[in-house]
Amino acid sequence: MAGFAGILLFLSLLGIIVFPILGLVSLFKKNGKVKKNFKLMGASFAVIVLGNILLGTTSDDKGTTLRSEKPNKQEVVEKETPEQLAAREANEKAEAEAKAKAEANAKAEAEAKKEKVKQAYLIEIMPVIDQHIKVYDDNWNMIWQPTMTAIGNGSTDYYTAYNNLQKIKDNYEGGRFIALEPIKGMNKADKKLLDTFETKMADAFSFRSMAVDIALEGFNTGNLTPEKVKKMQSYIQMADSSMIEAVAAMTAIEVDLGITR
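Above: the chain sequence. Below: its structure as tokens.
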């Protein structure tokens, strides 16, 4: 009998899981002799199951309600009165005009700052650069080349050639040291280019000075060997390469500042 009651209890509990209401009724009707604590356990279990079902349905309903109650942007716009619409459009126009004005002011300030840097460059830096390039070119074109040509065709002697090249040596020694202070307000790229110009210009003067040293030694001893001439020509090429890089850096700065020569 006890076994039969257990089977009925199991079926009732199973009914609670599958069909909660019918299972609960079955538990109380068909198992009158089952102990009271089993009934309470079954009832509690049924309440929990029913509660979960009801709560899930309520949550879903609430979520659906919340989603449906949220208006979209189009609905808000459609509900605007003509006065509200005009006010909103006026506000948007004012914001756009304020933004455009701010951008124009920023551009004007940048251009004014750049113009200030440009004028300072023209006064403080360009004359120094031009002077160094002039020294570099004039000594070579007006002393070095005529002297070497005269030595080649025998129209001058080593003593005269030596004195001529000593003048170049003295002038080039000064050109090896060039210091250019960046202008206040100059951007980082132009500052870097200015530093490149200084370095490459100093290299150009140094390499030509080294070429002059070889020629001076040859004129002093009266023995300018082919090997020394080849080395001298190598220094001259290195000087010209450095000068090209220096001029390229200078040109980039001036293009950025809007300077034309």
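The two ends are 118 Å apart (CA to CA).
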